[in-house]
Amino acid sequence: MRELFVRAVTRYGGAAHRLLYRASGGRIGGRLWDLRVVLLTTTGRRSGKRRTVPLCSMHDGDDVIVIGSYGGLDRPPEWSLNLEANPNAELEDGRKRRRVVARTAAPEERARLWAAVTAKAPGYL
Fold first, then answer.
1. Predicted pLDDT of residue 46
2. What whole-number distance in Å separates Cα of residue 85 and Cα of residue 63?
3. pLDDT for position 13
4. What is the pLDDT along the chain (125 residues), one digit of tens a residue?
5. Residue 24: HSE in the Cβ half-sphere, 13 Å Cα cutoff
């Protein structure tokens, strides 16, 4: 039941979030806790279609870190699987768009980044 709820919220809530975010240039839906929300566009690994999702993010130097928690489910979100298949993506921060190449954080890097995320966003604990 929880998975159905998370999937519905992700799909329909994400669509509304994208619409408001783009219409306002990120002023509406651009922050959650103390994290910046960005739109990430990936290419579907099976369909080849472009898919855009709103994600919490933070900067680590010049890198933009996005969080792939999928509502606390025990499986990765579809967009992260798409990035594994094709790491080329587009990141939209407010009205700025840029091409990015994704990579998974190394274990020691991941521990440091997760500590920084949970310090800013208590909902991820």
1. 93
2. 20
3. 77
4. 767 776 777 777 778 889 899 999 999 999 888 899 999 999 999 999 999 999 999 999 999 999 887 666 677 888 999 999 999 999 999 999 999 999 999 999 999 999 999 898 887 76
5. 14
Q: Which amino acid is at 14?
A: G
SS (H, E, C) 52-108: EEEEEEEEECCEEEECCCHHHCCCCCHHHHHHHHCCEEEEEECCEEEEEECCCCCHH
Greatest Cα pair distance, the chain, in angstroms, is 39
DSSP state of 124: G
Contact 14, 21 (CB under 8 A): no
> What does 1-47 look like in DSSP terms, one character per residue?
-HHHHHHHIIIIIHHHHHHHHHHHTTSSS-EETTEEEEEEEEE-TTT
Q: What's the CA gap between 122 and 75, in Å, rounded?
A: 21
Question: CA quadruple 84, 111, 125, 89: dihedral positive or negative?
Answer: negative
The upper half-sphere exposure of residue 125, i.e. CA atoms within 13 Å in the direction of its Cβ, equals 7
